[in-house]
Amino acid sequence: MSTIILRRLLQAIPVLFIVVSLTFLLVRMAPGNPFSTEKKIAPEILAELENQYDLHGSIRHQYEQYLWKLVHGNMGISIRYLNRSVNEIIEQSLPVSMVLGSVAYLLALTSGIAMGGWAAIRHNEWGDRGIMLFALLGISIPSFVLAPLAVMIVALEWNLLPAYGWGSLDQIILPAICLAIPFAAAIARLTRGSLLEVLKLDFVRTARAKGLSEDKVLFRHALKVAILPLIGYSGPAAAGILTGSIVIETLFGIPGIGRFFVNSALNRDPFMTSGVVLVFSSFLILFNLLADILYFVVDRRVKLE
Amino acid sequence: MNASPASRRRSTSLLLPFAGLAGALVLFLAFFYFFGGWSLSEPVDLTLCNGDEPQSLDPAIVTGQLEGRICLALFQGLTTRNAKGDIIPGIAESWEITPDGLTYTFHLRPDAKWSNGDPLTADDFLNSWERVLNPHTTSEYSYQLFYLVNGEAYGTGKITDFSQVGVKVPDAHTLVVTLNHPTAYFLELASLQTLCPVHLPTVKKFGNAWTKPGNIVSNGPYVLKEWRLNDYIMVESNPNYWGKVPIHRIKVLPTNNATACFNLFYSGKTDLVIDKSSIPPQLVPDLKGESYFHANPFGATMFVRYNVKRKPFDDPRVRKALALALKKDDIVQKITRAGEPVANNLVPPGSVGYTPPQGLRYNPELARQLLADAGYPGGKGFPDMNLLYPICVTGEKVATEMQALWRRELGITSIHLRGQEWKVYLNTQQLIDFDLEISSWVGDYNDPQTFLDMFVTDGGNNETGWGNPEYDQMLKTSEGTPDPAQRMQILQNMEKMLVEDEVPIVPVYFWVGMSLYHPEKLGGFEPNIVDDHRWNEFYIPEKKP
User: Fold this and answer.
1) Reported pTM
2) Considering CB atoms only, which of B32, B255, B269 is closest to A162?
3) Which of A228, B59, B301, B392 could disulfide-pair with B196, CB 3.0 to 4.6 Å?
4) Nearest of A203, A279, A191, A296 to residue A234 by alpha carbon
5) Could you tell me the end-to-end alpha-carbon distance of chain B, in angstroms, rounded to an integer?
């Protein structure tokens, strides 16, 4: 199995190379200049800036310069945050997003499975309908509506939790919940659907017929099988949730990496954009691989490759 | 017996995942506690929202207002400003100006020091100014020193000998500056961050990282203690500063979301919201009556640029017609709504000794007449034109309103909206690749020149394609005129040409500065036209018994 994992990791290199190349080239070719401001910059200064950032000459030359730096582990200097390298910015902001994302991810996974399981057992009863209504709303209400509403009610009306900031325990709760809700809703729907299918299968009937308690039927047998489709979903979801969300981070003032995905592209900052895209794609590849391994471990019918 | 089948099939032990959740959460919060950048908050005397994450804190590099505010807390130039915005002595305790207005002799405070205790001398200014002008520093504001003799030549690399530039150090506490021509606002320039001294041994030692906490050495009222990207900046009063600093520790939040800023203020988590962009525009009408809402005139103008190289805007009659048809009251009353004064001229009110020209007032009859004379009666035959605007809340609404006004007053139905995101918009503007566009200009200092010198022929910020040798000549003459009244008269004539006769631009409204703070909790924040509020002027008012 380790050779297979190694092979998959080696395969990731060309994928990341293509992704990062496309990002860099697209940002450089998009209209707009990273250095432009409201006031025109003197040509000598602009030339010096382009020189210092290795953004002079043909795009091919710039691209080669960037790749050369990248091979040496240097993702360049940010153009928006002048005194910081992209490496440094990612080092500072990624752990913040990952902490928030982990809390939200666990919240989503556990509450999603619990809600889905509950709904499946109470199929077509009020509990089921209630949960499915929640799930529908959770998936369809975008975070830029949900988060301000939560702030308005929980933080400003009830004064329960802080509306903004990062650094203390209570500041993590509201953003984590807002970040978790859409994922929890999706997981609840997936679990419910899958569990309903599984509960109809023969082996569940056999287990019941053998006189196992309903708890054992559910946890030891049914849920183990019903969870399989979730693994496929939760890999990419983990990559998404751990690398932050621009809406949540901007609104709650969280110094994470999520806001750079949009802002660095708007700033036409090729190094920052390529850097965060590189991080996200690595996460995506890694978590998909983890999901595949998990499939293999949980379901013996699955073979890697 | 067993329970009934229905209840048997209902498991209530789905609590297991919840238990797992609780355990995992505790684990992760513990992880966060130890590794997640946890800081037990020290008591902060003042928290303020500053607009956005600063691009840099190097005073030679920064150009934005929000960066400037922090830089001017950390650094101080020869002059500074009081709460009212007046120029007062800074590191220079006094100065003399020769009668021709060309030579300034600054006498530095003998007790001025750097935050590390090093004495601050005139050489520090000389070397820092060399650094600003040196093209390798990439200072976009280096032109603030082009007023010095040979400043421009050195800044553009035409000469490489800095001793030819008009700044000399006769002794450690005297700085003599020689200007190209009398510059009435040079003392204002001397208070800008670009002209502040930097501690060159520190810059040399740390290179790009010299502005980081721990490395930075500064000479202003505050020193930098912490700087966490997109999180906060902490500054503390500088024990080596020559003057008094009433508020000891200030926390600066780089919040770029107006709603979040307002939430912070509303829930009492911040004491001051400085930047106008940090106040949600849709809330402004409701906030206007509140005691914590403060609006003040501010030296910036929103205006329309025509591309005079494109038909039909090459015809001054068309340009005038569109200007006369613009009912600017509608725009400030319906859209911006913060009490912006309507602008019929470009230079904002508040420049001492300057009387602006009348400009073109709303006059739809004359507008229709002019448009008919130009060959488009009732807007018929008017070609398809795009109105360029930057995509933001106000930009889009103002553009839509203008389009509607021109349709209603002139019958022009062929002006279309063309929104572009900020960087693309700037690019289009610099290439003059638009028909007409919405734009703004914020004055660098309080003098009409900062608005009027934009429109010299082929000027870097002209961006209309318009030019008039007479206008260029008037600017030259004004620069060589030592008599302030005479100079203001020339500037007035220039502006008259700009907004009444040739009209390559249409001023629409003057910005207002907005801020949120409780006057009983914060003193020393006074409205001023330059919207420049030095933090060492702030104080906490005594509580009334």
Assistant:
1) 0.86
2) B269
3) B59
4) A191
5) 77
C-alpha–C-alpha distance, residues A36 and B423, integer Å: 7
Distance between CA atoms of residues B205 and B143, nearest Å: 27
Please, which residues bridge with residue A278 across strands?
none
* Cα dihedral: B164, A45, B390, A263 (round 10): -130
Under the banding of pLDDT at 50, 70 and 90, the label for residue B19 is low
The Cα diameter of chain A in Å comes to: 85
Please state the separation of Cα B250 from the chain's center in Å: 21
How much is the mean pLDDT over chain B?
A: 89
Class of residue B127 by CB neighbours under 10 A (exposed 0-12, middle 13-18, buried 19+): middle
- Which of the 8 DSSP states describes residue B367? H
Q: What is the pLDDT of residues B288-333, one digit of tens each?
A: 889 999 988 888 999 999 999 998 999 999 999 999 999 999 999 9
What is the residue-wise DSSP string for chain A? -HHHHHHHHHHHHHHHHHHHHHHHHHHHHSSS-TT--SSPPPHHHHHHHHHHTT--S-HHHHHHHHHHHHHTT---B-SSSTT-BHHHHHHHHHHHHHHHHHHHHHHHHHHHHHHHHHHHHTTTSHHHHHHHHHHHHHHHS-HHHHHHHHIIIIIIIS--S-SS-SSSTHHHHHHHHHHHHHHHHHHHHHHHHHHHHHHTSHHHHHHHHTT--HHHIIIIIIHHHHTHHHHHHHHHHHHHHHT--HHHHHHHT--SSHHHHHHHHHTT-HHHHHHHHHHHHHHHHHHHHHHHHHHHHH-TT----
Maximum Cα–Cα distance for chain B, whole Å?
A: 112
Q: Which amino acid is at A107?
A: L
Side-chain-side CA neighbours of B71 within 13 Å: the count stands at: 25
N-term to C-term CA, chain A = 10
Mean pLDDT calculated for residue range B43-58: 91
Banded model confidence at residue B1, pLDDT cuts 50, 70, 90: very low
Can you spell out the DSSP letters for B38-105? --PPPP-SEEEE-SS--S---TTT--SHHHHHHHHHH---SEEE-TT--EEESSEEEEEE-TTS-EEE
CB A295 within 8 A of CB B266: no
Dist CA B510 CA B297 (whole Å): 8
A262 CA: distance to closest CA in chain B (Å): 12
**Is pLDDT of B12 > 70?**
no
Q: How confident is the model at residue B421 (pLDDT cuts 50, 70, 90)?
A: confident
* Residue B530 DSSP SS3: coil
What is the DSSP code (8-state) at residue B501? Answer: I
Contact B531, B295 (CB under 8 A): no
Which pLDDT band holds residue B543 (cuts at 50, 70, 90)? low
Helix axes A143-150, A170-199, angle to 10 degrees: 130
For residue B26, list chain A residues with Cβ-Cβ distance below 8 A. Answer: none
| Ranges of chain A with pLDDT below 70 | 303-305
Among A49, A99, A252, select the one facing B36 at the smallest CB separation. A99
Query: Which residues of chain B make contact with A82, given a CB cutoff of 8 A?
Result: 55-56, 58, 61, 208
Q: Specify the DSSP element, H or E, that contains B425.
A: helix B422-430
With b for 16 or more beta-carbon neighbours within 10 A and e for fewer, the B5-23 pattern comes to eeeeeebeebebbeeebee
Q: Which of B14, B136, B206 to mutate to test the interface with A (most CBs of A within 10 A)?
A: B14
- Nearest CB neighbour to B267, from listed A148, A155, A252: A155
Q: Is B348 helix (H, G, I), strand (E, B) or coil?
A: coil
**Nearest 5°: phi and psi at A236?**
-60, -35
Residue A300: burial class (beta carbons within 10 Å; 0-12, 13-18, 19+) = exposed
∠ at Cα B480 (B476, B481), nearest 5°? 115
Q: Which helix (H) or strand (E) holds B398?
A: helix B393-410
